[in-house]
Design a protein that fits this description.
The protein is mostly helical. It has one domain. The protein contains eight helices and no strands. α2 crosses α6 and α5 packs antiparallel against α8. The longest helix is centred in the last third of the chain and has 27 residues. The chain starts with a helix and ends with a helix. The mean pLDDT is about 85.
Length: about 150
Amino acid sequence: MKKIFLPAAGLIPFALGFGMNARMMANMDLVLPYRLIGAVWLLFWGLVGYGAKYFAGSARSSALLAHLIPGAVLLCLLYQELVLGRYWFNLLGVATQFYYLPLLNLAFGLENFLFALTGGWVHRMWYSYLIAFGLMWAAFYLGSRLRAHRTT
């Protein structure tokens, strides 16, 4: 029963993404502190990883369980972006885009930095979604590893 908490925690970004979108649509002149939102979200996700040690045996298994939903969302986004070449015009298509919305500003910054290092720059949304997923995975895993080191 405790292992259900970890995949359920993967639903939290949906609420945050929909909330950010609602706030931006309510006031079009509002500029949110996007990088700060992303950094706070990663800190929170790391804290979830820190507490996840109680729900799964190891840092790796807790990260795998917690990222079932983010992985499924990433697969849907990659399918829409790479196979279809467009996004679905239904709730599933919109929800998958809003899922990584809190992290996209940080992901864009990292994407620009990586492409500047390699000498080329071609912006693709799916690069940013992969980077956002990697940031979530890293924050969660580091939080759970920190817990493992503090308890030993």
